[in-house]
Amino acid sequence: MIKILFFAQLREMLELESLEFALPDLLSVAQLKKQLADKGGRWQLMFAEQEVLVAVNQVIRDDDYLLKAGDEVAFFPPVTGG
Fold it and tell me: Which CATH number fits domain 2-76: 3.30.1390.10, 3.40.50.1980, 3.30.9.10, 3.10.20.30?
């Protein structure tokens, strides 16, 4: 099981702060994104319309990173600053 957190506009879009996700043996960040997007509707829009950043256990990771049970995955929009 992993815990998934959503921040900023993603939280507002999904009307969801977090969820628990049953993890199969091996799953990459890209595969997790696809499984969530496959739910359709707002889930699909979340990954289709904008670049979504991901942190695993509070460290930014790329789509190839393999998740393991107990991980905390956070999705958030790109941060801009000046």
Answer: 3.10.20.30
